[in-house]
Design brief:
Length: 70
């Protein structure tokens, strides 16, 4: 699974999973901000979902720092 995520994100393990979450969060943010037919409620909901993905990716990154190869 790590090899698939590594090839998808271009980031070496253990940071590849965190990079995947950050890429998904960025896509959610971009789609949410530039989609022209969203109501304000849908815009806020999309930003909250993207924020959750970004925070989870950051937590995964912090957890993977001790596993970093030297």
């Amino acid at each position: 699974m790590n090899n698939f995520i590594e090839s998808l994100t271009g980031v070496k393990p253990p940071f590849s999973q965190a990079a995947l979450f950050e890429i998904v969060a960025a896509l959610i943010f971009l789609i949410d901000l530039f989609w022209p037919y969203l109501s304000l409620r849908q815009l806020i909901r999309g930003l909250l979902v993207g924020g959750v993905w970004a925070v989870y990716g950051f937590i995964v990154y912090l957890k993977s720092i001790p596993q970093r190869p030297s």
